[in-house]
Amino acid sequence: QQQVKQSPQSLIVQKGGISIINCAYENTAFDYFPWYQQFPGKGPALLIAIRPDVSEKKEGRFTISFNKSAKQFSLHIMDSQPGDSATYFCAASIKGGSEKLVFGKGTKLTVNP
Amino acid sequence: GAVVSQHPSWVICKSGTSVKIECRSLDFQATTMFWYRQFPKQSLMLMATSNEGSKATYEQGVEKDKFLINHASLTLSTLTVTSAHPEDSSFYICSAPDSGRRYNEQFFGPGTRLTVL
Lengths: 113, 117
Hints:
The complex is a heterodimer of chains A (about 110) and B (about 120). Chain A has about 110 residues and is an all-beta fold. Chain A has strands spanning about 5, 10-15, 20-25, 35-40, 45-50, 55-60, 60-65, 70-75, 85-90, 100-105, 105-110. In chain A, the strands form 2 sheets. In chain A, strands 2, 4, 5, 9, 10 and 11 form a 6-stranded mixed β-sheet that branches. In chain A, strands 1-3-8-7-6 form a 5-stranded antiparallel β-sheet, with no helix packed on it. Chain B has about 120 residues and is an all-beta fold. In chain B, strand 9 and strand 10 form a beta hairpin. Chains A and B meet through strand 5 of A and strand 5, strand 9 and strand 10 of B.
């Protein structure tokens, strides 16, 4: 029940395309859903996060869509760029970010020029 | 975002020695910090939760006598890998939630690459 399932494991997109990564969870106590971007040899960087009281949040080219009834959330990267090539992790926690995060297994995104 | 630093960024040591890794929150205070390890091409695995002024909470299967955690102040947590062996070689990352932010967003350090020979 503590798992967060992430798909796909890898994704290849052409420059300018839309990248979509999906996550699903079981624990209805989760109330905070962040996405992290990680480049090789670096720590994860917080990209965008959402709480269940909204269905969508947009920051620049990045959008989180949240479906509470389906217990699913997804990351959309619009106008994908080669510089977006990285590994993306979804996560979930209780009580916002103050509690431990449960991570998905990650999606390696490659954006071809 | 808030800044979390780690030191050293990489370390090579001989088998049987101990290695200390520092995690600092530079522009906010953190009563809690988290320590993760990450193997190549894998997700982050939570090792322990570091609590300022009290004992750390370890995840199941993590040896607390091998991975010593000390949260000495509101901006510093240390992880000491004692009697390191080659299987301890990994990427160690810390994170800290910033309670001054709306969702207590968690920020990660840049990681420490440990290689045990």
